[in-house]
Amino acid sequence: MQFKTRGTCSSQISFEIEDGKLKNVRFSNGCSGNLQGISSLVEGMPAHEVITKLKGIDCQGRGTSCPDQLAGAIESVLKTQQAG
Predict the structure, then answer these.
(1) Residue 65 phi/psi, 5° resolution?
(2) Helix (H, G, I), strand (E, B), or coil: what is residue 11?
(3) Which regions of the chain does DSSP assign to beta strands (E)?
(4) In whole angstroms, what is the distance from residue 81 CA to residue 77 CA?
(5) Does the pTM of the predicted model rise above 0.85?
(6) CA–CA dist 26, 22 (Å, integer)
(7) CA angle 77, 62, 46 (to 5 degrees)
(8) Diameter over CA atoms, the chain
(9) 5-37 pLDDT per residue, tens
(10) Which domains does the chain have, with CATH numbers?
(11) Which of 2, 5, 16, 41 has its CB surrounded by the most CB atoms within 10 Å?
């Protein structure tokens, strides 16, 4: 899945959810080292746990952040899966 971000340095996030767990998280653009670190830390984590940990994180008063955008994208996918 690919999601365009809003209000962050990264422009896009791609990831997969397999058996309820996050896989292959990749950010396009943004702070490379930090985003590689986030991607590595959430790899294999349950999607709901990632949302709980990352939702609402703010970057420089923007009201969002790359981690927050990831949490929102995961929520969107899970809602779509539940509705389907």
Answers:
(1) -165, 175
(2) strand
(3) 2-4, 10-18, 21-29
(4) 6
(5) yes
(6) 11
(7) 30
(8) 37
(9) 999 999 999 999 999 999 999 999 999 999 999
(10) 2-83 (3.90.1010)
(11) 5
